[in-house]
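## retry 2 of 3
previous attempt timed out at serialization; input unchanged, resubmitting
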Amino acid sequence: MTTPCESSAADEKSRAALISLLAALGLTCLKLGAGVYTGSLGILFEALHSGLDLLAAGMTLVAVRIAAVPPDAGHPYGHGKIENLSALAESLLLVAICFWVGYEGTLRLLGNEAASAPSLLGVGVMAISVAVDANRVRVLRRVARQYKSQALEADALHFSTDIFSSGIVLVGVFAVWLADALDFPKPLHRIFVQADTVAAFIVALVILRASLRMALEAVNMLMDSGSAREENAVIKAVGTVPGITAMRRLRLRSSGPMTFVDMAVGVEPDIRVCEGHKLAHEAEKAIEAVLPGSDVTVHVEPLSSASLRSADPFELTSRTAREHALSAHNVHILRDGANTRIELHVELPAALPFVEAYARVHAFETALRGRLPDAHVLTHLEPEGSLGERSLESAISAPLRERVLEKTRSAVAGEDLIEIPHDFSVYTLPERGICMSFHCVVRGNPTVEQAHDVCVRLEKRIRADLPDMDRIIVYLEPERAVSASDPAGKNG
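## retry succeeded, writing output
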């Protein structure tokens, strides 16, 4: 059911689009008449431009009216996406105009033709055009910002470019008239009649950049790419609700001016159903405070704060990655007092567009921060299979391999707790360099901390002699394990 507020917003957006449409119609007729009367090529071009504006204004009017239709069985999220489609179409239309300006400008420069004929009537028509465009851009932008209408915003961008292009033609027509009226010398006259064409190239580049940015934004909206700023605002708002232990999942999508939020929150398992419902309602109010007018769905799951505090961050990271269908590796958990820093690598299809890859990884990071609110997550993206193939010892020259083994055996000899280095593997990894792994026998029965300290010292010694080494993996095993598999201890 449409509320009075929504009906008023739809009426104001439709009124703004209708005014823009009538203005485009009037300007098109005015420029066409003046162009035919004066024979000005520049004004005729502007008439064509305004005709395209007329088409864009009509598209916007239709879009905002369809977007105002309430949700139905076939469109449960409403019809707001039509505004994004309209914005994309208008942006592509602007791109086409930019290429047309470049083509026509090149012909005029090469042909040394005047962009417009000498005429004060043309100057007056273009001045009126600039004034009308400035007024309708002001109205469209005000309504677009008030009601978050991307279609009206695209319309305002479209017509703001008309101010530049009309201004350029105005300057060009005036320059040609001035050159003719003052009877400038031929070299100076040639410069004046081409000034508007050169300026049109500059304006076309500016319009092209803005159009491509608007098109990319429309595509992202159509593909439901969430806003990182809005997601962070939601996480922060829900985090202030007492009784919510974690945020398990968060998804945002936009449809026209509406934002739909779907999330799962954790609560203590032993609370009553009515208490869980109350917490979900509090979360919805917190979200609506940072995203006014949003449609929020909150799913409640049992998850005690005690279990989260005692949970292993590595296990939570791995589980969250699996839930988001991501392949994670090289997970590092770094702690500094109460702060936790999580660094990991994630593999995604090599041909996947970066925007989609970022959206998937960002959703994973958001879910992980919901489970570990104090964690700082850094994710490195890699194409799938980048570590699947490696070149083993055959890719390492024999002299280099022998040097690596010699330096490693020398480093091991300097440690009292380890001996008998064996099972060497020297290889290269793409984008990393020379890597090595080997086994060593541990003397006696040291603690884990002592064994780790030995490995750290060993790696430092090897890198001091072999600075080109990248990854070094030392596999430690007790004496009895070697004795059982290789009594002589001569393997490798």
